[in-house]
């Protein structure tokens, strides 16, 4: 692969790219496009792809390097690999689940560990893919503009990819204004990492590195000899950010896979990859935490992903994505995926996907071409301390069932709205994210045993898992309506419980208007302020409040009396279009 070298320098807060030296192609530069998703969320991506990172001000995925310094003159055709079953694929892997030796020994060097893992580490170049519009700098919140000026300078963000040099100078070198440009070399949108898991060229990496690229190159270095291969995507899973690609080669060095379930906080780990396109770089740290979820790092549109991250202080920077996180014996225990940072660079908080979780995904991709996940059909809510006390729990563990979908495995098994799931197959459930993760890791058709708390009593419930439809979550919250949609109905304001909500007793007219069956009793929401807390919680016009604090309600007056309690939290059971669900309202 031919290489282009450039000189970089900072000047007055801007990154300058000098003319190239000793190279075949003219120099080029890349910058970042930025689109504001909301007041607390940004999307950062390269201008020529959607190799992106979604953040909540601080979460920055490390898929694409800020600068790409290598180019490729073209691609060779690659043959599709023969169909391979997951069992056969697994037999080709190197695995070692031996526990680490006890601590207390002084380690003077990790050179042996590094020599073991580095030959299997590859640098990945992704080309093509869809781009997105770039906003004006005025669209970016003022408090965030200094961050972007650091990369783009005071002139702001370029509007289109045409604002970026793409090879030669405009107009050529003969002085004619309209002279044709020399053909620009194809350049990568981003740089990531990966690691070889079989001698015949299977490579594990992140979905956000390769997921929507048109072309992929993998650079392998063995005994000082570098070779570039065109890679084919075998399968990707956006909901865990795992991907499997393959190159047409044999006799390759392969990484040894460890057992991430045996990791402990405090274990030494090393992160390998190509940060900032510095190939074959290694950093060292420890496991800072295990089982990190709810980070909102992995998503697909509105659908939350499945997160169970290893947290580490081993330095992870742009370009490390997809590279291996290894233990002190050189065994892969995770896939480097994201960092928590205010600057986009390492701040000592990095996240890796556990290798055991990644292998389950990869084997599904090989066998089925997609990931098959178990499905219960329940909507869940986490419990804070006050809610836990209301349900008689000693701690904040468990997941509250807010809704049970009709004709779902949970419905058939007898799960009810208001149940609190505290364990599944003996595994403790400490929140809704944990239950989603446990269920999704099981195959459709698997029989599971849930431990639920109902009316203060613990009881087992057996259920046979269905298959998660499409790519939606195990428990997906429905969108709220815009309110006032069926207007014209008057009622009484429920400011004591829910400011911005107007309710009315159920009458033949309201039953007909809102299509409420005769067997449903309660008070109906006839007006809803779209800016209210109730709307933000997900309540809708037409909801029927059936119970307040587990007591049946037949009139507005009853609801108000039941809400007069010293409890800080009020529990509402609501009927909506054939389903029942729970809302927990903080009176403060």
Into which percent range does the helicity of residues fall? 10-25%
* Total DSSP E strands: 37
Structural class from helices and strands?
Answer: alpha+beta
- Model regions low in confidence, pLDDT < 50 over at least 5 residues: 1-10, 12-76, 130-141, 143-181, 471-490
Q: Which word captures the global form?
A: elongated
What is the top-level CATH class of the domain at 492-586?
A: Mainly Beta
CATH architecture of the domain at 492-586: Roll
Whole-angstrom Rg = 28 Å
Count of DSSP H/I helices: 11
> How can the largest sheet be summarized?
7 strands, antiparallel
**Kindly, what is the distance between the CA atoms of the first and last residues, rounded to a whole number of angstroms?**
64 Å
| CATH H-level superfamily title of the domain at 492-586 | PDZ domain
Determine the CATH topology of the domain at 492-586.
Answer: Pdz3 Domain
Mean residue pLDDT: 72
Per DSSP, what share of the residues sits in E-state strands of 2 or more residues?
25-35%
Topology:
Elements: E1 8-11, E2 14-17, E3 33-38, E4 41-45, E5 52-55, E6 59-61, H1 86-91, E7 94-95, H2 111-117, E8 121-127, H3 145-152, E9 190-196, E10 202-206, H4 207-210, E11 215-222, E12 225-237, E13 242-247, E14 256-257, E15 268-273, E16 281-292, E17 299-300, E18 303-304, E19 309-312, E20 324-327, E21 332-340, E22 350-354, H5 355-368, E23 374-375, E24 378-382, H6 385-390, E25 399-404, H7 409-413, E26 420-424, E27 427-428, H8 432-440, E28 447-454, E29 457-464, E30 466-467, E31 492-493, E32 501-505, H9 508-514, E33 523-528, H10 533-537, E34 544-548, E35 551-552, H11 556-563, E36 569-576, E37 579-586
Parallel strand pairs: 7-14
Antiparallel strand pairs: 1-2, 3-4, 4-5, 6-21, 8-9, 8-11, 9-10, 10-13, 11-12, 12-13, 15-16, 15-20, 16-19, 17-18, 19-22, 20-21, 21-22, 23-30, 24-25, 25-26, 26-27, 26-28, 28-29, 31-32, 32-33, 33-34, 34-35, 34-36, 36-37
């Amino acid at each position: 692969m031919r290489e282009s070298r450039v000189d970089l320098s900072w000047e007055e807060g801007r990154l300058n790219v000098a003319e190239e030296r000793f190279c075949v192609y003219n120099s080029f530069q890349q910058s970042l496009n930025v689109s504001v998703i909301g007041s607390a969320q940004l999307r950062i991506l390269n201008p020529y792809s959607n190799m992106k990172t979604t953040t909540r001000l601080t979460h920055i995925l490390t898929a694409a390097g800020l600068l790409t310094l290598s180019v490729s003159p073209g691609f060779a055709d690659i043959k599709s690999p023969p169909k391979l079953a997951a069992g056969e694929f697994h037999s080709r892997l190197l695995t070692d689940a031996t526990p680490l030796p006890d601590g207390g020994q002084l380690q003077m060097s990790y050179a042996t560990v590094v020599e073991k893992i580095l030959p299997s580490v590859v640098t990945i170049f992704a080309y093509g893919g869809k781009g997105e519009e770039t906003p004006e700098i005025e669209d970016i919140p003022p408090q965030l503009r200094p961050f972007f000026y650091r990369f783009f300078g005071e002139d702001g963000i370029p509007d289109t990819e045409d604002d970026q040099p793409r090879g030669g100078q405009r107009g050529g070198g003969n002085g004619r204004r309209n002279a044709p440009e020399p053909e620009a070399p194809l350049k990568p949108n981003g740089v990531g990492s990966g690691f070889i898991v079989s001698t015949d060229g299977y490579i594990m990496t992140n979905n956000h590195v390769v997921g929507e690229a048109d072309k992929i190159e993998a650079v392998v270095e063995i005994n000082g000899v570098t070779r570039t291969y065109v890679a084919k995507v075998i399968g990707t899973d956006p909901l865990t950010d795992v991907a499997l690609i393959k190159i047409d080669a044999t006799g390759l060095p392969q990484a040894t896979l460890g057992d991430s379930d045996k990791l402990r906080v405090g274990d030494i780990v090393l992160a390998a990859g190509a940060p900032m396109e510095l190939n074959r770089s290694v950093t060292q740290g420890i496991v800072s935490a295990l089982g990190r979820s709810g980070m909102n790092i992995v998503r697909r549109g509105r659908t939350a992903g499945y997160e169970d991250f290893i947290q580490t202080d081993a330095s992870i920077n742009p370009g490390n994505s997809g590279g291996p996180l290894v233990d002190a014996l050189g065994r892969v225990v995770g896939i480097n995926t994201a960092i928590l940072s205010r600057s986009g660079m390492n701040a000592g908080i990095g996240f890796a996907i556990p290798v055991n979780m990644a292998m389950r995904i990869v084997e599904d991709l090989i066998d089925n071409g997609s990931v098959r996940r178990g499905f219960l059909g329940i909507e869940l809510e986490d419990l804070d301390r006050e809610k836990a006390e209301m349900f008689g729990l000693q701690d904040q563990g468990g997941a509250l069932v807010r809704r049970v979908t009709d004709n779902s495995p949970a419905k058939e098994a007898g799960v009810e709205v208001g149940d609190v799931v505290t364990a599944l197959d003996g595994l403790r459930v400490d929140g809704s994210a944990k239950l989603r993760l446990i269920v999704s890791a099981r195959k459709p058709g698997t029989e599971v045993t849930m431990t639920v708390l109902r009316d203060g009593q613990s009881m087992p419930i057996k259920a046979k898992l269905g298959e998660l439809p499409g790519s939606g979550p195990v428990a997906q919250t429905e969108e709220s309506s815009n309110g006032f949609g069926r207007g014209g109905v008057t009622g009484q304001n429920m400011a004591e419980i829910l400011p911005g909500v107007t309710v009315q007793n159920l009458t033949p007219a309201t039953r007909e208007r809102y299509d409420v069956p005769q067997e449903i009793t309660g008070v109906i929401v006839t007006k809803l302020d779209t800016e209210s807390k109730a709307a933000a919680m997900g309540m809708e016009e037409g909801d029927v409040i059936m119970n307040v604090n587990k007591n049946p309600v037949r009139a507005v007056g009853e609801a108000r009396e039941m809400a007069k309690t010293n409890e800080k939290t009020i529990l509402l059971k609501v009927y909506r279009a054939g389903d029942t669900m729970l809302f927990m309202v903080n009176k403060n």
